[in-house]
Each structure stands twice: as C-alpha cells, then as structure tokens.
Amino acid sequence: MENEELKRYWHTAAHVMAHAVKRLFPEARLGIGPATEEGFYYDFDMQESFSPEDLERIEKEMEKIIAEDLKLEKVEADREQALNILREQQEDYKIELVEEMADAEEITFYRQGEFIDLCRGPHMNSTGQIKAFKLLNIAGAYWRGDEKNKMLQRIYGIAFPKKKDLQEFLHRREEAKKRDHRKLGKELDLFSMHEEGPGFPFLHAKGVIVWNELVDYWRQLHRERGYEEISTPIVLNEALWHRSGHWENYRENMYFTEIDGNKYAIRPMNCPGGLLIYKSNQHSYREFPIRVAEMGLVHRHELSGVLHGLLRVRSFHIDDAHIYMLPEQIAQEVLGVISMAEEIYDTFGLKYRMELSTRPEKYMGSIEDWDRAEKALADALNKKGADYQINEGDGAFYGPKIDFHVQDCLGRSWQLGTIQLDFQMPQRFELTYVGPDGEEHRPVMLHRALFGALERFLGIIIEHFAGAFPTWLAPVQVCFIPIGENHIQYARKLSGELEALGVRSEVDDRDEKVGYKIRQAQNQKIPYMIAIGDREIESGKIALRHRKEGELGAWEFQDFKQRILEEIRSRKCEDV
RNA sequence: GCUGACGUAGCUCAAUCGGUAGAGCAGCUGAUUUGUAAUCAGCAGGUUACCGGUUCAAGUCCGGUCGUCAGCUCCA
User: Fold this and answer.
1) Which nucleotide is nearest to A417 (CA to C1')?
2) At what angle do helices A92-100 and A79-88 cross, to 10 degrees?
3) Which CATH number fits domain A478-570: 3.30.565.10, 1.10.3470.10, 3.40.50.800, 3.40.50.1100?
4) ipTM summary value
C-alpha cells in the first residue's frame, strides 16, 4: 500500500476508534485524530483516565463498528451549519478549530453511522475496510501541543489491511525493544544510571573502552583536518554568561553555583571558554581559518520527563569545534565540515539527512546579519548540491544552523551533528584579527559538532549495532576458550601475543563446558572466539569462530592476527 | 515540568481476600576436565525505592517524596 493510501487507512482507523470511544464514553470530547508516520492517534478530553482494560473494551467496540461496515459519507457544511452541529454535540475543541478557519475554507464532516466528525478527509469508503488493528498505548498530550493548554488523553493505534502486516509490525517492535541501549547497556556492562544522579550517566569500564576508541578516532580525524585541540573549564563566572547572552537566552537550562561568595555558572555550552582562549592572543588574517576543537563536558537542566537513557541526559560531552575565519571563507569551511560529517557517519554505516534552521523568535543581533548568515549556509549547501529541508525559526539564538539527522533502528530521528554560523559572539566578545591593511577587523565564527553529544552517539550506535560493535570498538575483541585445564596455559600465551599487538583479548579459564563459554561470548557479542584443545596445540593452528559467521575452521594464528589487525585498522563496519 | 502506569534479591519475574516474601539466571563453595549457544549439587543473597498513615497484622490499602517507563512540550 502506498504511503498516502496507508495514511488514509490510518485516518479512517482513527475515526473508528473515536466512534468506539464515543459509544462507550459519551462524555468524552474530541480533540484531533490524525494519521502519523506510523499509525494514528486520537485525543480525548474526559474526566476519568483511560485504563488498559478500557483499551480492550474500545478494541472490542471497534471490531463491532468494523463488522457493521458503515459507509463513510462526506458532508459539506457552511460555517453556521458546522458550528450548529458541533454546538449540539458540545464538541468545544472542534468549535475552536472551526472558529479559526478562514472564511473561504471549505468545511467538511465525515459521517459513519451515528458518528459524525469534523474532518478534512480523505477516508476509506467504509469501516469494514479496516482489517487488522491494535491500540498501542495511552499518553497525555497538550491540546494543540501547547503546554499552557489542557492536557488531553491520547490513544495511539496501528492498522493494516493484512493481519500479516500487523504481526510483522508488532514483531519489529519487539525486536527494536531487544536493541534498546538501556537494556544492552546493562547486559553488556557498558553504563548505568542511578537515582543519585538522574540524567547523569555512569560509564563502566567496558563503556569507557568504546568511548576512548570513539575519541581516538575523533582526534585522528581532527589532526588530519587541521584542527587543534583545547580544554576549558566547566565552571566559569556568571559575568561571562551575561556577556555571551546565555544568561538572557538560556538561563532556565543552566545550573548555578557560588564560589567565595561570587556567582558562577556550570557551562551549558563550550564556546565562551574557547573565546577567552582566542582573545588571549593577537591574531592575523594569515592564521585563518583557525580550527579549534574541544571535547567539552556541558550540563543542561532538562525537564525530568524527557530524560531517556544515554539519548537524553543532563550532562554530556559535545565534540565541539569553533572555526574563526574571514567572511569569504565561510562556504569553504562549511563544506569542509559537511565532508567531515559524511566521513564519520559512513564509518558507522549511519544514514543521515541535513536540515537548515533559520532565525528563531528569540534571537540576538540584527536581521541583516541573520539574513547574511542564512544565505551563507544555504549557498554552501547548494554548492554541495545537497538535498536539505528548511526548518523555519529553529536556529540557535546566536545564529542559523545546518543539522545532521540520523535515523536509529526504531525509526526515530536524532539530531547529531550541527553547524552553526555566528556573527554575534565575535561582537559580544570583541574578537579581532589584524587584516592585510594593518587594521583590526571582526572575524566570523562557526560552531560545529559531528557526534553531537558523545553520550547520545554511544546510545545510538549501541542500538544501531544491537550491541555487536565493529571489532575496532568492541570492549573485548577476542575470547580464548580452552577446552580443558591443560589448554589454559597455551591459550594465555596466544592471548598475550594478541594483547602485545594492541588487541583486547581474554581467556575464559573458568571450569565450564565449551558450549557454555561459547554462549556467554556470543551473548557478550565478542567478535572472535578461539577454541584451544589438544588438536590446536599439536597442529599449531587455532579453531576460529566469528559471532556472526559462526565456525571458521582451523586457521594459522598468523593469518588470524593479520585479519583482525586489518579489521581494526580500517575500522571495518559489518552489515547491521 | 505535565498526563498516565510502574518500583519485590545483581538480572528477569512470582507472592489468591491484608495473614511467616519465593523461583530461575548470575554469585560463592564443592564435584566434574569438558570440542562450538546453558554439567550437577549445596550455600548465600531482602528494612519489598524512601517517609508517614490506617490496621491485631501492610509487598498488598491511603497520603507524600524520589526514580523509572509511555507520551506531550523542549533539545545535542
């Protein structure tokens, strides 16, 4: 079924659900009930809250409505008629919608049996066309998405023309759950969260191995691309944040503290500290572009309800960089950053798309500067010939930005990298450089991140690889499995040889059967397992097993060393 | 922050109407010396998130706090 048709299907399913709810709970008032990217929902306003048992009752009633095979009839109405119908039904939310419609706008209702609903359509012909459906969950949602409004109850559901499709959908959901980085993080001993620090992740030893590999890779890439690396403090005097504009624009997300009676802030962004370094020296146009990177730890007060494993936290490391340059260097530098982002995402086999976000309501500086900055970013994207989407009003308060969005295994989209052009900070901090004319000028500044937040990136790749990291990232790369007691020493010798080459290797010398050790190594997603018994000691070969490819037979140890070293060196990424 | 649900051993879960908190896995000890996804036995493990209340008696009922989960809003 085509996307448009599927949405029509889901929209009709939403009407069937609303119909069922009105039959069971006549006092419920309707909000809106559209199709989404994956399914549908309908919002209801009702005194009591729906329980899971209610969902079952609603599902049963939906079955009835479907069995009745009611025709969906389009009913046109003028404004007065529409309001009359809605007033009679006391559908206050719908009345609000009609009242806001432009005069010229056509008003339509859809009727199925005794149920009639203000709706633009289109719909399926009859309720009987809905074959397989399921109500998934109940959640609160603000009327019109505004937290100042009343919270309604939203019921989510999914529907398909074939039972098989529904089963597949539910199966996919189960599989996605198995990949949840919070679950895998526990099972693989990568990280944990604790009540003592909600939103502040604890990385365990194995998590730190992955982390350090990511950072090593990041450093190498930045060296190659002409960046220098700095490190600046986490706690800085509040005055700095007044000057940067964060106090004014970002205060509600910041943590504050006091030292010797003076006010300090814990940084929510890295840039002001970096600017102080820039200002501690004179600069010449000849140095430009100056590319300065910092893996900077920031803290932000996020609402408690949004915290989510490593994907949404209150303290995280931004793989930040600031580029100081001449206005005419903007396009070239932006293109450089885009190409760097491509290289990184390709390394992990991640798909991404770009978005350009423009001036928000809360902004600093002049409109002319903003127009100039927005044009510069758009020019770079066009020069690249990139496909991109525009998000009006979604920019940072100091400048417009290009964002990189990556899709995870659940189909959720995450903002990772970002490129933000900034004419404001250089002014606020009075940054200068000496031009060819011997005069002082103001540089242009660009903020950018590629991983975005390293914590979030780690969470995403845990799910993306389902915990089976590429060998270069795997906390344990090789596990030796001695068959019996007599083979432990030899296994240790070989393992030591690998460790000497920088390979992370272990020997499972526990008194357990081979099958048990294999199972454990598989569950830990260790890329290579090597069984060592009498045969191997006699022949000098190893019995190799790969977590995905299974048994690889007898290998010369030398050949295996070459294989794994090459795999690590090239940061090979298996299919996921 | 808001709405709703949930919180029992390291993990996954059980405990009927309010009546002595249990099991599997993991851990420890012992036996076993193992050839490609779980060897057997024994032992230990708990202030049932926390605080308060009702009751002869609370994991269970009530109130509060904290946290988690599904969303909303917000965001790297």
Assistant:
1) B76
2) 170
3) 3.40.50.800
4) 0.93
